[in-house]
Each structure stands twice: as C-alpha cells, then as structure tokens.
Amino acid sequence: MSVFRPLSRLAAPLALAGLVCGLTACNQGPKASDDKPAQAPEATLTPTQSDSATLKAVLARGRVSCGVHPGLIGFSYKDNSGRWRGFDVDFCRALAAAIFSDADKVTYVPLTTTERFEALKTGKVDVLWRSTSWTLSRDAADQVDYAGINYYDGQGFLVRKSLRLNSATELNGARICVQTGSTSELNLADFFRARGLKYNPVVVKNEDEGRDAYAAGQCDALSSDVSALAAARATLSDPTAHTILPEIISKEPLGPVVRQGDDQWTDIVRWTLYVTIVAEELGVSSETVKAQQLESQNPEVRRLLGSEGNLGGGLGLGPEWAYNILSQVGNYGEIFDRNIGADSPLKLSRGLNAQWNAPERGLLYSPPVR
C-alpha cells in the first residue's frame, strides 16, 4: 500500500467560486414559494373532518411547514431572488399541491443536521424533507417514521484530480473532512477499520464548513453522500479539477420523515411521493397531464388523475389531488432532471434512481394506483 502524499505538497488551496447557475434561477422550473404567511386557502377538508392531528394543524394554518436543508445546491437552497428551489423543495411543493391545490402554500424551515429531528418531534415542522438517511436506529428510537425513499444515495469521496488517485483505498493516512452528527462519520470509521487503514478525521459542523475546509486545503478528501459531493464540487473555482472516487461505502436511502402515530398524514406524504414516481412510469408529465385526464383510456391513468373514482378520498383528499401535483410540480423525472440531473449544474445520472423498468434499470418503484 502506497503512503498517502499530503495534498498541501501537490496543489494550492482553491478559492470558492461565485454562485452557480442554479443559484441565479437561470433554470427556473415551476415557481417556488416564499415564506410569507398567507390566509388559509380553500382546501378539500375542514380540520374537524380529519382524524390526523397534523393535517388538522396544516389546514388551520393554511400552509405546510416543511423542514429543509439550509443550503444544498440542487436539493434545497434560496436563489438570488430569495425563492426556495431544489429537488427536496419540489416534493414539499407537491405535498402542498395535494392538500391545497396550490404548490406555493409552503413555509420552508431551514434545519441543521442536529436540529432536524427535534424540530419534527416538537411540531415545528410537519414533515422533514431534508437529505435524511433511513436507518434502523432512527426509525426505531427517534419517535419518527419514514414515509418512503425519494433518492437512493451513498457515501463517497471527493478529491483533487492532481492526486492521481483511482481508489479510496489509496487514502491511507489522508486527512478527510467529515460532518459531525451524521451517518457519514460512522461509515467513514467503519470503512477504514475494516481495511486496516488509517486516516485523520477533520470533523466539521456542516456541509458548508466541510466544503470550505476542503477548498482551503485543510483536508485531502471530503467524504459525504455523493449528491452532497456533487453539490460541493459545483461551487468550487474549477469543478473539473476534482473527481468523486468510484467507491460507494454505504447505502443512504433518503426520504421524507414524519412523526410517529399519525397514520393518515404518513399516507398523504408517502403517496405524494409515489404519485410522482408512478406518473413517470405511466408517461404522465406536467405537459401532458391535462390532455391525459380528458382523453386517456388507461384505467390506471384515469384513476390516478381522478377521471374515474376518487382514490384521494382514502387519504382525505379530493379526486384531483394527484392531477394538482403533476400539473404544478411534475413527475419524478421532471423533478430530478431540472434540479440535479441533465438540466441542472450537478448533472447527476439517474443511476439507482432510474425507474425499475427503465432500459438501465434502477430501484425506483411505486405500488400500483388502484
């Protein structure tokens, strides 16, 4: 095993770049909401008609309170006009569209890694849609439930190309920036311990601090979810000078988190996600949904869009709840592409997040709409 050569002898520290295209709102997508309070809009139910304490509170307030990342490019961030945008933000918007027929009825609550679960458990937010990995210990011990998976991620390593590294196993003796209070810290320790390798952890409080430390040459590698590494790379002065090593050292299924004990609310959040997934599978998009609601002869499409029956009634929602999600926010593929995929600065491939029946198959799968 070759000894790791300190980065400080190989490359000068890099300064952070200015705001990337995603922060300038050059890739608009559907309009996102601001945080200004609003009068309660007309909704499907009145608070007294719902068995869900959370839904009652949401309806009375007139907005969904959504816990999000304070600033992760592609996933949750404010653009230069002060509007929230991103992959996770769009799912918050989809939830508001399902309940209020208005995707802009969202209050975004930025939460750090250490704040997020307490904010959810104490009712500060109704749902946590914030790059949060589903693990047994969290599911069993934190009085929270996971309503689904909207992004299959994994932990990796961002390094400078000038190091000429081909594998994370060549990081023996390296200084590695890792966020405290995250699953990444334990995963990193497990990876090196299992291989009998050594590393020097540079513990940081959040993604911004980790990115800054890496850019300044305080660590030789940055370890986090690959999605977060792609976001960090996009902000560096020369993104092409950095690469993500091939090893994925963990499974990080990310998805919405809700409080335990409110089954109706959990179902609404879960099926808001599934609607976007099954719509992509069925070929229903924001551009085609209106015509398909009127003309489709596919029974599953007709049920999904409220052309026949009212599957939303089982959730306490109206017959056009799914139509409102798709017309205002779009299907999963649209949400992915404009925020983190081909139409975004991150340009992440679908990978595991491809549909189960795609030519290059992924893990994305929704239960049937019936």
TrEMBL record:
GO terms classed as biological process: amino acid transport
PROSITE patterns found in the cross-reference section: PROKAR_LIPOPROTEIN (PS51257), SBP_BACTERIAL_3 (PS01039)
Chain segments annotated as transmembrane: none
Keyword Transport tagged: yes
Domain Solute-binding protein family 3/N-terminal residue range list: 63-292
Keyword Iron-sulfur attributed: no
Pfam entry (one): SBP_bac_3
Signal peptide start and end residues: 1-17
Domain of life: Bacteria
UniProt keywords, alphabetically: Signal, Transport
Family, per entry: Belongs to the bacterial solute-binding protein 3 family.
Identification of the protein by name: Extracellular solute-binding protein family 3
